[in-house]
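Troubleshooting: if your tokenizer reports a length mismatch, compare your output against this known-good record of 207 residues.
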Amino acid sequence: MKKIVYFLTFLFLFSSYFMDLAFSECSPLTPCCCQEHPGGAEKCFTQGLCCGYGDEQFWDPVSCFKFDMWVEPRSTMFTVGRKTNVNLYIHNLGIYPDNYNLTYNITSGNSALIKVDIAGFDYVKDVGPKEIRVVYPAITILESGATGNIFFNATSEGDNRKQNNATLTILPSDFPLSLPEFDFFSLFVIVVLSGIIYVYNKMRSLK
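Known-good structure output:
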């Protein structure tokens, strides 16, 4: 039993040591020493953090987690009634893998006429260092001429103080729901009704 306790204690201390190596907070009481910047000279610091692994740690004054986010297109028109995907990019600029919580808010326009679907994209998982991940929120407008701004926000799970955002502007549009977007049954009904109207008008003209 004692051997198991000793082993678990050793394992805890061993893991704690390597966690400190990978993510060391600096303070006047416990200064930390690492490269001033990647590839730079090693110095000791009393504030900030040492980020990285082993001998490749470097200092950052704020956080070891960084990322950028943007949406493409930044502004566009939408066809009424059609669910359209936009590209939302998250670029992990840090040296650790990270997860991101994604939310949105319609900041202008009539929110009742704008539907945003981020199902499956509200939690962006395992984005590696320097990786760019793209997700595809779906936008639907319910009335021609609907306009507004959709504000997307992402929060780093590694450091929830780190947030970023991107805004999509919906431009006014008169695009109706086009024929190719109807399903087969709807097209069949339109063709049949058109044929009935044509035959009816033809018979009336012969009288």
